[in-house]
Amino acid sequence: MVQDCLFCKIVAGEVPATVVLEDADWLAFEDIAPKAPVHVLVIPKRHLVDIGELGADPALAAAVVAGIGATARHLGLPAFRTVFNTGAEAGQAVFHLHAHVLGGRSMNWPPG
Ligand code: 5GP
Ligand code: ZN
Predict the structure, then answer these.
(1) What is the pTM of this model?
(2) CATH class of 6-103
(3) Which residues of the chain have pLDDT under 70?
């Protein structure tokens, strides 16, 4: 656990969150400010900063991808978008790796 990391605190139960699904390696919980009817964040329970660090741990990368799929199935999403913001310039505000899973409305690309 990294001190002062919001998502480590959610993993530890120190900050409340609405948990959707989890396993030993990852946690899925509702985004506090949803950008779509369904907006869930899937995170590794171990602190990683971004997708670059996730790429250095292929087993955990596979687990997080499986977690995204399991969460989408659990929510009954027929279609969804997965976004990893990497770096402040790309909109990353929480520096504990997280996948945004967005669905429940049309997800045309590019975003308008
Ligand atoms: P980022 O901009 O880093 O890619 O995404 C961070 C996300 O975390 C945002 O969508 C934001 O709404 C969400 N978020 C920020 N603080 C909290 C919180 O305390 N609880 C939950 N559940 N989500 C949060
Ligand atoms: Zn963390």
Answers:
(1) 0.96
(2) alpha beta
(3) 111-112
